[in-house]
Task: inverse folding
């Protein structure tokens, strides 16, 4: 007797009527000091999220001091004209707040999250950090040492190590993108408080720092809170340099970063493509999802669910720079890890998936399922204030219109199977990909050479 | 009650309420309405985790969790994933020491589908379970182990500390991922037996949270789950009773190709669900949670011997909880110097307790953690299940913050004095060799379009 004999089975239920949901339209305003503010009310979200984009892209770092944007970002948390570094951290945590700053190719992002009841207090701390950071010599020295200590950990991490090798392969040596975002041991070692101060003076000011505030807002006098905090920040920032696209070398080739004894091979396979201003972006999003967005996408269906070679392989696109004229750049890629002894067969299967996709395209069923997921999942993805704030801040940073995300769902729904197929094949063509493998070269280089996916070079781990 | 200085607890739980029901077959159903967003979360906790595994079969609970996604009587192959995602939902499953959970967050109008799918596999998994999926998921799980533990610097630290804190033969001695040898040894019959023993409606709690009509959901629960027979063959886990302290300092030195020296340590702490566990949480937060904690200030800011220094807490109900210290050294700093500083700080804390400012900060941080956990319907459903399964009352989830805010500085001091002592810790020291040598598991590695590859 099986359990099925005793359980009453019912036919699969059909869904009910969808309830309306739309990505929130932000309300735009400004403060007298030139700061632009986008706000969005999300009922019930009692942790308020604040995001600021400081338009200081990594390429503005002085040569030889790469990493200074990262050290400056971290130093914003390390004391002001009112509080020492220890006091500042204590005041933030007293609010139950978190304040993070991250320097990237597009610019510097500062994220504050705080329970609504303590928003004004935390905004005051944020304003202090931006208006009057201490940049004390001893704190900068410590942050530099910490950063130097971090580098060996990053080199040891297979995913990070793979990314370093891929960026170095894709971008020419003179491009900032070819080198690690947070600098190398050589450049970080040169950074001192003076360098951090100079970077701050040149690039950080309220006119170049649009802010996004999201959460349950009606109970808060946000105008007053902003006026007495971020509104007191004055100063000017240099115009960021005009972005010019880099020459990219995506000649197919394979770089093996040698890790003797590694039990898995980390894969990172990629090339570059346009930013999200491309009218075909929705098709690319859809196609990349069908290829490697989830466990039932093409790559995992074979490599995981049929062969058991991996815990999961994903395809992705990541915007690196974006500008209103559409000349920006995204990294398009496939990543995951596979057991060492099946690295050759796994890559052979992966390429077979790409070739079959190019030859036959996606099926209508795949396209439909992808649209249903990507459109249907929207209300779930944006439950929290932080998720909404992050997306709004991305739009601002990427110079996309405020209704980009809101309109994306209709555009996805209008995208057909043929367009999605063409977009993903163009994004990740079988004969146009740079492959990085972090693993045991002695065991994997031979089988990979036999695949004909590009010339194989082995570099030290 | 020292609450005046923190946000009022209503700020956390708001007007959240929940009701509990029980079907005739023993399935407990917890419902909580929230109509602010058109989403609904389904969470199903089975009262089985790695502590129920027997010797030679470590990792079976987690491997089995993977098999739950391989189809059932009316669901083919990967149909569970396909149907949920095709309806715009998200899903996963995880296995820990004390439970296995499965969850879906759905657009509200697709809620019924998630209930139908969960019921189908609870009632009929064995009709679909076969050798092919067993062999395939065994390989997937072994790759999960490699990716998350074996191929990562310090990746096996947690496993090693756990094995020291909970002695051989103790149900918590091994972690949910299990050993490669045991994963290899698990048979299809083991998996079947595991299902028959633990996957019964009377060994589970179902929580549904969000934009729901409770009467309708209860009717659906009864329709889909109500005819699954209850089953009383469950074996209780082996006895997890242990003294609250280890009684001596245990120590292991690992020489491996890691990027820097590290000092890790684990302490036995009071059981989850007790006031002492909340006090311990506050002690660990004041000592090692965040950038204003005593250990961060001492080791990272002042002594500058560490890159990072922090405490984590693994709350456990069926055995002493575990506090976990992780310090990565800076430059050439010696572990012995760090240990000396650590002992001084712990001794001083045990003597003096937290300052009022430290209490305020620690409580604000823990309150914030709760706000984050309750901010999504999925987070709320999981907490309701947790309190229902482990402590018998789901609504305890909504008063958890209040309990943390009621703890006094003296209680925090007392728990630190009793537990955070050298004779109650397992120490793990990593010494890098250079190259040439060699808490929770999930079903799917997650998708995120923006999560790309950063150097």
Result:
């Amino acid at each position: 007797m099986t359990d099925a004999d005793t359980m009453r089975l019912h036919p699969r239920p059909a869904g009910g009527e969808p309830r309306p949901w739309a990505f929130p339209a932000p309300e735009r305003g400004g403060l007298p000091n030139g700061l632009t503010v986008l706000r969005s009310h999300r009922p019930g979200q009692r942790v308020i999220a604040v995001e600021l984009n400081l338009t200081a892209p990594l390429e503005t770092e002085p040569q030889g001091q790469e990493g200074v944007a990262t050290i400056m970002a971290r130093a914003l948390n390390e004391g002001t004209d009112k509080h020492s570094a220890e006091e500042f951290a204590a005041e933030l945590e007293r609010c139950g707040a978190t304040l993070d700053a991250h320097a990237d190719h597009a610019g510097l992002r500062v994220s504050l999250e705080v329970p609504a009841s303590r928003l004004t207090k935390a905004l005051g701390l944020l304003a202090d950090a931006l208006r009057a950071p201490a940049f004390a010599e001893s704190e900068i020295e410590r942050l530099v040492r910490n950063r130097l200590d971090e580098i060996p950990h990053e080199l040891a991490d297979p995913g990070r190590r793979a990314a370093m090798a891929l960026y170095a392969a894709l971008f020419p040596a003179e491009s900032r993108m070819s080198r690690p975002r947070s600098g190398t041991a050589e450049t970080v070692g040169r950074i001192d408080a003076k360098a951090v101060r100079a970077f701050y003076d040149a690039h950080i000011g309220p006119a170049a720092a649009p802010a996004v505030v999201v959460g349950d807002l009606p109970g808060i006098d946000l105008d007053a809170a902003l006026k007495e905090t971020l509104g007191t920040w004055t100063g000017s920032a240099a115009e960021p340099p005009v972005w010019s696209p880099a020459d990219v070398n995506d000649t197919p080739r394979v770089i093996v970063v040698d890790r003797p004894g590694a039990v898995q091979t980390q894969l990172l396979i990629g090339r570059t493509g346009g930013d999200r201003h491309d009218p075909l972006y929705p098709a690319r999003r859809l196609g990349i999802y069908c290829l490697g967005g989830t466990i039932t996408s093409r790559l995992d269906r074979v490599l995981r669910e049929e062969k058991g070679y991996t815990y999961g392989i994903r395809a992705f696109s990541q915007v690196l720079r974006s500008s209103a004229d559409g000349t920006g750049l995204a990294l398009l890629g496939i990543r995951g890890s596979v057991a060492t002894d099946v690295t050759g067969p796994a890559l052979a299967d992966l390429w077979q998936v790409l070739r079959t996709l190019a030859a036959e395209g996606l099926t209508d069923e795949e396209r439909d399922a992808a649209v249903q997921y990507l459109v249907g999942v929207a209300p779930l993805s944006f439950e929290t204030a932080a998720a909404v704030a992050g997306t709004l801040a991305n739009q601002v940073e990427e110079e996309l219109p405020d209704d980009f995300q809101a309109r994306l769902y209709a555009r996805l729904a209008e995208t057909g199977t043929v367009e999605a197929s063409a977009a993903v094949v163009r994004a990740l063509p079988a004969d146009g990909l740079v492959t990085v493998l972090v693993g045991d070269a002695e065991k994997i280089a031979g089988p990979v050479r036999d695949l004909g996916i590009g010339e194989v070079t082995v570099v030290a781990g | 009650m020292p609450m005046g200085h923190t946000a009022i607890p209503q700020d956390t739980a708001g007007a959240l309420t929940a009701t509990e029901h029980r079907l005739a077959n023993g399935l407990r159903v917890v419902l909580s309405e929230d109509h602010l967003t058109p989403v609904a979360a389904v969470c199903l906790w089975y009262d089985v985790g790695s502590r129920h595994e027997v010797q030679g079969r470590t990792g079976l609970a987690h491997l089995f969790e993977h098999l739950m996604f391989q189809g059932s009587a009316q669901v083919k192959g990967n149909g569970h994933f396909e149907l949920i995602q095709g309806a715009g939902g998200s899903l996963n499953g995880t296995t820990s020491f004390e439970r296995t959970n499965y969850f879906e967050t759905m657009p509200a109008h697709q809620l019924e589908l998630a209930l139908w799918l969960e019921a189908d596999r609870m009632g009929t998994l064995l009709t679909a379970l076969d050798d092919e999926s067993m062999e395939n998921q065994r390989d997937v799980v072994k790759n999960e182990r490699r990716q998350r533990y074996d191929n990562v610097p310090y990746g096996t630290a947690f496993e090693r500390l756990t094995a020291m804190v909970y002695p051989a033969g103790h149900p918590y001695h091994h972690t949910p991922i299990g050993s490669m040898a045991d994963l290899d040894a698990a048979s299809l019959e083991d998996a079947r037996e595991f299902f028959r023993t633990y996957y019964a409606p009377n060994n589970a709690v179902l929580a549904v949270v969000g934009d729901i009509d409770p009467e309708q959901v209860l009717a659906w629960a009864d329709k889909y789950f109500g005819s699954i027979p209850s089953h009383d063959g469950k074996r209780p886990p082996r006895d997890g009773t242990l003294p609250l302290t280890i009684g001596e300092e245990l120590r292991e030195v690992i020489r491996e190709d890691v990027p820097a020296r590290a000092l890790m340590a684990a302490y036995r702490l009071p059981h989850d669900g007790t006031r002492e566990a909340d006090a311990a949480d506050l002690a660990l937060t004041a000592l090692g949670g965040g950038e204003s904690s005593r250990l961060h200030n001492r080791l990272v800011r002042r002594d500058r011997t560490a890159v990072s220094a922090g405490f984590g807490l693994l709350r456990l109900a069926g055995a002493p909880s575990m506090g976990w210290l992780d310090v990565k050294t800076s430059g050439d700093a010696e572990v012995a110097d760090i240990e000396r500083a650590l002992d001084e700080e712990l001794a001083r804390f045990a003597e003096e307790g937290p300052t009022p400012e430290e209490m305020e900060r620690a409580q604000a941080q823990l309150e914030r953690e709760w706000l984050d956990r309750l901010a999504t319907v999925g987070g709320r459903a999981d907490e309701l299940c947790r309190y229902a399964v482990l402590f018998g009352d789901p609504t305890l989830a909504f008063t958890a913050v209040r309990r943390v805010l009621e703890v006094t500085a003296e209680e925090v001091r007392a728990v630190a004095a009793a537990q955070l002592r050298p004779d109650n810790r397992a120490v793990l020291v990593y010494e890098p060799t250079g190259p040439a040598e060699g808490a929770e598991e999930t079903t799917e590695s997650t998708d995120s379009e923006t999560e790309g590859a950063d150097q």
